[in-house]
Automatic annotation (TrEMBL):
InterPro entries reported in the protein's UniProt record: Bact_solute-bd_prot1, SBP, TAT_signal
Protein name, as recorded: Carbohydrate ABC transporter substrate-binding protein
Transmembrane segments: none
Chief localization: periplasm
Keywords: Periplasm, Signal, Transport
């Protein structure tokens, strides 16, 4: 029989928690012990509402709900969960920040806390507590979490945007491994189209799949929307090279990508209309769960984005930070909940349940077996370490958040690829928008 005393529960190791998740009565006992020892004591009669992005992997959401339920039973803090598509979280958070009313916590995308940094709860103590306990934060997470010396949000996780591709079709096109350079990738895309197994990238207002690939393309060719001093630099020869490369890809993609949002490529891949795209691991997870799609899961894999003329990885992955609004009546309960979510005994089984869809931002979680028990998940383990941030060379605050939420770079690529604008016009349009945002 296993005995759970407070010391044993609070010192449970990362690897042990990953392989022997606490559930049911054990999770509740651990949660009660944690609540008694945690630095934050929820206010009397505290209740919290949280708006989070709509899940893509059912098991992830099931585990999240189980953790929220255990927190409620351990602390008495009632939690109400609402879900929206992640492109809809930001406008609702902005309205709440401006009106001073709404959910206590928002769990959204990219630089969300930086859109209204003076309206959020300072969670520096939570970040310091977690960083010290779990091997420190990856560099990109620090940039997303901090505004100056203040942590305005806690980076919960990334969702990796990696290449999803079919194996047999790639081999038939002459590629035994996925291309590692942009030149080879263009040849791959052409060969796949020639064999009637094309792919596609989203060029509609897709905050995940659309933004991630166009930023990769821009950076891969040495383009930047701003320099280190936040001076707008989008109108450049490097940007034009990126646009021309993207158009060469576009001309070999499946028709219709100009109107795709984040759901279209998932459906097209699972419908076998496309054979390569960029996405989280949700396509693979869905295929493994559906007997009629098992042949797709068996015949697909994941790879990092190819490296371009810049000579180094230039990936942008989806950061999901959580923030607590400054107007919350329950700041201590909010901090306690955020810290609780990222304790090893909770977070390890949670990311295991997500099956590779969530990638950690704290170094200690590298050892979670979820990354090695299925080699097709392994590339997603390191996306937090590989990811650049939405600010590029510049700051990662409110201005960068506005540029990405307004789809400035994505619209520039879409306008040029679809033939609406020539390269000069597309760059000038983006330049004008960015100068308004950055006020230069």
């Amino acid at each position: 029989m296993t005995t759970f005393d407070r010391r044993t529960l609070l010192k449970a190791g990362t690897a042990a928690a990953a392989t022997a998740a606490l559930t049911g009565p054990a999770l509740l006992e651990w949660s009660k012990a944690w609540a008694q020892s945690a630095p934050w004591k929820p206010e009397k009669d505290a209740q919290l509402s949280i708006l989070r992005w709509k899940y893509f992997v059912q098991a992830e959401d099931d585990k999240f709900v189980a953790l929220m339920d255990a927190f409620t039973k351990a602390t008495g803090v009632k939690i109400t969960i609402s879900r929206e598509s992640y492109e809809d979280v930001q406008p609702k958070a902005s309205v709440a920040a401006n009106t001073g009313a709404g959910p206590d916590l928002f769990w959204g995308l990219y630089s969300l806390p930086h859109l209204f940094p003076t309206k959020v709860l300072d969670v520096t103590d939570v970040a310091d507590y977690l960083g010290k306990k779990y091997g420190g934060w990856v560099d990109s997470a620090v940039k997303y979490g901090k505004e100056g010396n203040k942590w305005v949000g806690i980076p919960i996780c990334y969702t990796g945007s990696l290449m999803n591709y079919r194996l047999a079709a790639s081999q038939k096109a002459g590629f035994s491994t996925f291309p590692t350079t942009t030149d080879a990738f263009l040849e791959y895309v052409k060969a796949m189209k020639k064999n009637n197994t094309p792919g596609g990238f989203a060029l509609g207002h897709a905050p995940g799949d659309g933004n991630t690939w166009v930023y990769w393309c821009l950076w891969a060719h040495g383009g930047q929307h701003v320099d280190k001093d936040d001076k707008v630099t989008i109108n450049s020869p490097e940007t034009e090279k990126a646009l021309n490369y993207a158009k060469a890809l576009y001309e070999n993609m499946v028709p219709g990508v100009a109107s795709w949002n984040d759901a279209f490529n998932n459906k097209a891949f699972l419908g076998e209309e496309i054979h390569w795209t960029n996405n989280g691991i949700s396509i693979y997870v869905a295929a493994t769960k559906d007997p009629s799609k098992k042949h797709i899961a068996d015949d697909m894999n994941h790879a990092y984005f190819p490296v371009g003329p810049a000579g180094k990885p230039t990936e942008l992955h989806l950061m999901f930070p959580i923030l607590a609004m400054g107007y919350t009546k329950y700041p201590q309960a909010s901090k306690a909940l955020i810290a609780y979510m990222l304790e090893a005994d909770n977070f390890n089984p949670w990311i295991a349940a997500a099956q590779g869809y969530l990638t950690h931002c704290l170094n200690a979680f590298d050892s979670n077996p979820v990354w090695t028990e299925d080699p097709k998940r392994t590339p997603y383990r390191d996306v937090a370490k590989r990811s650049l941030t939405a600010g590029g060379l510049g700051s990662n605050g409110e201005k960068a958040a506005a540029a990405i939420s307004d789809y400035v770079i994505l619209d520039m690529f879409a306008g040029f690829c679809a033939g609406k604008d020539d390269a000069k016009t597309a760059m000038r349009n983006a330049e004008r928008q960015l100068k308004r945002i950055y006020r230069t």
